[in-house]
């Protein structure tokens, strides 16, 4: 990779030699173009961040607590943990502060769990289409991926999970996004939730339940997360990134207390501890009771954008395109007619219409073609006008490809 | 680990089954006792954190930049990187913003580099006594550790490094702390620096130069870090934790540009990106020119505490105890007479004198006994009075053990 004068080359670990930048990085660069309408990344809307309130909270914390800028063990963040316990009740989860482990965002939580559970070359069970950040976590382990089909409406094929487990497979973990699936937008049916929780318990296989979108629900009724149905074998991963702001870099896990020591070992080797300052600021924000109103605002604002996008799709995409109405999250998954060449569509969309989306295949595990004629559309990070204009533009380009 | 009703047990990865909490965690818990004088942890002095200035900067950033709470690619943090380029000039390092990679603290930098360079079961070269956080990073890789002796005055035995490399060993990396070694307090001699830089170049073995203490120098003359002597094969790891505050959780690496893509892949899988908010706040602090004066304050304050501790040791420790005067950092390494049982001394010190230190052996690699009759004493996080009282107490207990 780098060479000295005598021609010696830097050797990287085997996995790293093969590793290629994620499509997210390219998309992040692409969407930095000024004026581009982006349905590409899963960004929360920065116009809605409670910046003034947060500036107040963090200023107060800095001025009043000398220890806010110090190192600190995860255990001292008791106030924040107590607030999270209260928050989780709204998802139907009963837990204690002792079961909460704070992380530098949910991504770190998933990474730490993989580190703890997975042997190099070990097995992991996931859907054929899933969050790329989880696949990135797995890369250095070169694991054997066991994949199951997934339904754009009801999520993971839990019968297929059962078949794998019944056949004797014992993956180190099962990864799933129960609500507002990324990229499908799907929320698992109640029947599937109950069955998956039961399978985890019966076979003693831990489930990593990634739940960044559970609180972003746009319907009157929300289904309980897996963690509410099975407290021992489900490891819940939560995040403030989508419900407050990604910049605070704080997530949490709810795990059995017996795991805390081992989690702390990995966490310490990763970044010593999660920023005290940020923890205290989020705690103050929650203690002031501000998160509840903010969540209502987000549900209202994002829900309305979802509806605008669905309506625009109905109006401007060809009739063969299929979409579901997501009850949660930030994404609409659009299945396109087979004549659509998605990479070409993306290029033309960016160049001719100034709009970006994410090709479905970017989320596919090896062998899956489910994303080949599909796209992920983010609706949280654009105005209603941009959504209408962008969807119309993409619709026109799809029609053009019909030829 | 956790069991279901039918007796199934949660399986952890092999390394994790063995892993035990680090002594740092125990010490962190121990030193939380109110009133305890702690020379144990390597904590900066929180009374000296520039909290008011930082509250101002971060408030301004939050109010003026909507994107400060958003996700963001590492590449956008150009202002901070430019300030770091300027800062590094003071250490004699010439680099460009494109060679700087921002991390969630230096610990993450070291972890990412290990992930990129090290194969499971691979070789790593380090000193027989070294930073425990590096050893923790290595644990999941179950590496073969090649260790070399280390001198409390002049640091790493570079001749021993040469012998290993000349004999054909090609470790994935060499880890060293050039200035203010943790736990020894030693700074490498100029001759050793030049030779180690030359060895890295000749044999094409990357050196991870961990430099949290380089700017905390208490003498008129500072020696250049390895990175200033060899720009290609030395990967420099810097940190704001000791020169500003750990709570900002920002560190940086200076590495060849060709490595950036691969580093980004690992970083993204760890925690997506370093907190924008914190990056912008540190950038604003540096742009306002405040870091220079703060560094002068820290040098003056910590330097005076170092002198107080050395004087107290000379006065209260038995004559057989040996210490060096550290030119940098936060630690004094005290070698004790062979009759001293260090674990007993620590227990008595905490219980009878209300003072804690770190047993030397906690930093030892397997087979090394260098730390058996030694202790690491931190001088940054106590008042002059506490230093005098604490050292007197420990001295009395050492005398008592003479029996």
TrEMBL record, chains A, B:
Its cofactor is pyridoxal 5'-phosphate. InterPro entries: Aminotransferase_I/II_large, Class-I_PLP-dep_aminotransf, PyrdxlP-dep_Trfase, PyrdxlP-dep_Trfase_major, PyrdxlP-dep_Trfase_small. Keywords: Aminotransferase, Pyridoxal phosphate, Transferase. The keyword Protein biosynthesis does not apply. GO terms for molecular function: transaminase activity. Pfam families: Aminotran_1_2. The keyword Transferase applies. Residues 48-393 form the Aminotransferase class I/classII large domain. This is PLP-dependent aminotransferase family protein. It comes from Tumebacillus lipolyticus.
């Amino acid at each position: 990779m780098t060479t000295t004068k005598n021609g010696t080359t830097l050797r990287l670990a085997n996995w790293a030699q093969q590793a290629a930048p994620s499509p997210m990085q390219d998309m992040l660069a692409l969407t930095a173009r000024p004026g581009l309408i982006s349905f590409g990344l899963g960004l929360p809307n920065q116009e809605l961040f409670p910046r003034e309130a947060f500036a107040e909270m963090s200023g107060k914390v800095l001025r009043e607590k000398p220890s806010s800028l110090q190192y600190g063990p995860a255990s001292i963040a008791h106030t924040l943990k107590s607030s999270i316990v209260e928050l989780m009740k709204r998802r139907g989860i009963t837990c204690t502060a002792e079961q909460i482990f704070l992380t530098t965002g949910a991504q770190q939580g998933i990474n730490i769990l993989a580190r703890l559970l997975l042997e190099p070359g070990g097995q992991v069970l996931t859907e054929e289409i899933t969050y790329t950040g989880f696949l990135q976590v797995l890369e250095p382990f070169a694991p054997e991926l066991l994949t199951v089909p997934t339904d754009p409406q009801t999520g993971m094929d839990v019968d297929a999970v059962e078949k794998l487990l019944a056949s004797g497979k014992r993956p180190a973990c099962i990864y799933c996004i129960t609500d507002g699936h990324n990229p499908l937008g799907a929320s698992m049916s109640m029947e599937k939730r109950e069955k998956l929780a039961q399978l985890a318990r019966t076979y003693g296989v831990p489930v990593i339940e990634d739940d960044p979108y559970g609180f972003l629900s746009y319907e009157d009724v929300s289904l309980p997360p897996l963690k509410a149905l099975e407290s021992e074998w489900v490891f819940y991963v939560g995040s403030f990134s989508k419900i407050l702001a990604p910049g605070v870099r704080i997530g949490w896990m709810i795990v059995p207390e017996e795991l805390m020591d081992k989690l702390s070992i990995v966490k310490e080797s990763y970044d010593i501890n999660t920023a005290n300052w940020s923890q205290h600021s989020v705690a103050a924000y929650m203690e002031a009771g501000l998160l509840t109103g903010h969540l209502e605002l987000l549900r209202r604002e994002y829900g309305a954008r979802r509806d605008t996008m669905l309506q625009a799709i109905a109006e401007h995409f060809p009739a063969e395109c299929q979409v579901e109405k997501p009850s949660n999250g930030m994404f609409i998954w659009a299945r396109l007619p087979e004549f659509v060449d998605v990479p070409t569509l993306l290029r033309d969309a960016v160049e001719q219409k100034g709009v970006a989306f994410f090709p479905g295949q970017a989320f596919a595990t090896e062998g899956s073609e489910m994303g080949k004629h599909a796209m992920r559309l983010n609706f949280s990070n654009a105005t209603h006008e941009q959504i209408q204009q962008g969807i119309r533009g993409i619709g026109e380009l799809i029609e053009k490809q019909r030829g």
